[in-house]
Design a protein that fits this description.
With about 425 residues, the protein is α/β, with parallel strands linked by helices. The chain is built from 14 helices and 13 strands. The chain folds into 2 domains: about 170 residues, Rossmann fold (3-Layer(aba) Sandwich); about 170 residues, Rossmann fold, CATH 3.40.50.2300. The strands form 2 sheets. The chain has a 7-stranded mixed beta sheet, with helices on both faces. The chain is globular and about 60 Å long.
Length: about 425
C-alpha cells in the first residue's frame, strides 16, 4: 500500500475500511448486504479521485472524512464504516466504482468532488435507489434533473459566481481599488465550463464595474501554460479571474511570475489556489490571491471541533473547503442514519429529505434540502492566502482577517 493510500485510512472509530478496486468482486462476496436491517453502523462508500491529476485534492477530501467518526461519535452519532473507491479522475471509472461500492454493500455513497465524476455516480445511484450525498460538485443540473436519491449541501455554479460578485464589490469598496478590466482564465472541464457560463450569464445582473476583456479556456491536463499566460498579458487586464484545478493553478502562477504579469489581483473561484500543495509550491508568490469559494466558518461549534480533531490527526496542515464539505457530508449521513434507525434505502431517503442540521462546519445557516435535494442557498467567502495560510476576509460575520488589496507586485514579495 502506498504512503498516500495509508494516509487515507480512516480513524479507529470506523472499525473497518474496505478499498474497492480491482478485487471488488471478492469484496462484494465477502460483505453481506444489509439493506433494510437495523444496524449499529452504516456502510459509507466514499468515492473520490485518489489517483490521476486530481489525486491530491481527493486525498485532501478524504482527510475531512477521516476525522468525522471520532468527532461525531463523541456527539452521540452512530458508527460510520467506510468503503473507499477511486475514480482515477475519470468519469467512466467513477461510474464503475459507484457500481462496485454498491455491490460491495454500501448503503450510501459520498462523493465525488469533480462535477463530471459526480454526475456519473448520480446516474448509478438513481438507477440503484441508493442515496448519493454530494461532498463537492457545483454543476447545476445535478439537482435539476429530477433525481430522488441525490442530496447536495454544496453550492451550484451560479451560487458561487453570484456570491463572488457580491464579495468582489465589498472588497473593492473596502480598499478603494476597483479593476476596470478582467481576463477570465478557466479550465474546460465540466466544472470550469459551468462556472464560466454562469459568470457571463450573471455579469449584467450584478452590474460589475469591470469589463471582461479576454476569455481563455484550457485543458486541465496541460503542463505548459505559457501560451495562455501570453494571452492574458496581451489583453492587459487589471485583474485575473481564474477557474482552475490544483496542478494548473501552480503552473499558471509560476508562469505569471516568469512573464512578469503584474495584476491588481488574482480572483479564484475553484480549488487549487488555496490548497496546501499550491501554497507550498508557490511560496511567497501564492500570497494575496483571493479565493471566492465555499468555506468553513470557524466561529461555529462543529467547525471548531472538526479543526481540533484535524490538527491532532494531521498536524501542520491547513483546513479548507475540501475538508469542511466532506466532513459535512459525513455529518449528513450520520444524522440521517441516526433518525432513520435502519439502513433500508427508503428509510435513509426519507431521513435525508427531512434533514435540518444547524450545527455544521461550513458558512451558512445550516443544512436543509429542498424538494430537488439541494440546499437552496449556500453562501461563499472571500479567502485570502497569507504567509501560507488561507484566511477568511469576507463575509464579515465569518472573517478572521482584513483583506490586502491590491495584491503586491511579484518583485516586491
Amino acid at each position: 500500500m502506498s504512503d498516500k493510500m495509508k494516509d487515507m485510512k480512516t480513524s479507529s472509530a470506523s472499525r473497518r475500511t474496505v478499498l474497492v478496486g480491482a478485487g471488488a468482486g471478492a469484496v462484494a462476496a465477502a460483505v453481506p448486504l444489509r439493506r433494510g436491517l437495523a444496524a449499529s453502523r452504516i456502510k459509507v462508500g466514499i468515492l473520490l479521485p485518489r489517483s490521476g491529476p486530481q489525486a491530491q485534492t481527493g486525498i485532501d477530501c478524504q482527510r475531512g472524512a477521516d476525522i468525522a467518526p471520532d468527532v461525531l461519535r463523541a456527539m452521540g452519532y452512530p458508527e460510520l464504516e467506510y468503503m473507499l473507491g477511486d475514480t482515477e479522475t475519470k468519469v467512466d471509472i467513477a461510474r464503475a466504482q459507484a457500481e462496485k461500492l454498491i455491490d460491495a454493500g454500501a448503503h450510501v455513497i459520498v462523493g465525488a468532488f469533480d462535477s463530471g465524476q459526480t454526475m456519473a455516480a448520480a446516474q448509478v445511484c438513481e438507477q440503484r435507489n441508493i442515496p448519493l450525498v454530494v461532498n463537492i460538485a457545483a454543476v447545476p443540473k445535478l439537482t435539476e434533473l429530477g433525481y430522488k436519491w441525490v442530496f447536495r449541501s454544496f453550492p451550484t455554479g451560479p451560487m458561487i459566481v453570484g456570491d463572488a460578485f457580491r464579495n468582489q464589490k465589498k472588497l473593492f469598496g473596502m480598499n478603494g481599488a476597483t479593476p476596470k478590466s478582467v481576463a477570465l482564465l478557466h479550465v474546460n472541464d465540466t466544472f470550469g465550463t459551468s462556472l464560466a457560463g454562469a459568470l457571463f450569464a450573471l455579469t449584467p445582473k450584478f452590474k460589475m464595474p469591470y469589463k471582461i476583456v479576454e476569455k481563455i479556456s484550457y485543458d486541465p491536463y496541460g503542463r505548459d501554460f505559457s501560451a495562455e499566460v501570453r494571452k492574458v498579458k496581451a489583453a492587459k487586464p487589471e485583474a485575473l479571474w481564474a477557474v482552475s484545478r490544483l496542478n494548473d493553478a501552480i503552473a499558471i502562477t509560476k508562469e505569471l511570475v516568469r512573464q512578469r504579469v503584474d495584476l491588481m489581483g488574482i480572483l479564484s473561484t475553484g480549488p487549487g489556489w488555496y490548497e496546501d500543495a499550491y501554497l507550498k509550491a508557490t511560496g511567497k508568490y501564492g500570497n494575496d490571491v483571493i479565493n471566492l469559494a465555499p468555506w468553513i466558518d470557524f466561529k461555529k461549534e462543529m467547525a471548531r471541533k472538526m479543526r481540533d480533531a484535524f490538527r491532532n490527526k494531521f498536524p501542520g496542515r491547513n483546513m479548507n473547503t475540501n475538508h469542511g464539505y466532506t466532513f459535512d457530508a459525513m455529518l449528513i449521513v450520520a444524522d440521517a442514519f441516526k433518525r432513520a434507525g435502519s439502513t433500508r434505502n427508503t428509510d435513509l431517503q426519507t431521513a435525508l429529505q427531512t434533514t435540518n442540521i444547524t450545527n455544521n462546519t461550513t458558512i451558512g445557516e445550516g443544512i436543509k434540502f429542498n424538494k430537488k435535494g439541494q440546499v437552496p442557498h449556500v453562501p461563499c467567502a472571500a479567502v485570502q492566502n497569507r504567509d501560507g495560510k488561507p484566511l477568511v476576509v469576507l463575509p464579515e460575520y465569518a472573517a478572521v482577517a482584513k483583506p490586502t488589496w491590491p495584491m503586491r507586485p511579484w518583485t516586491k514579495r
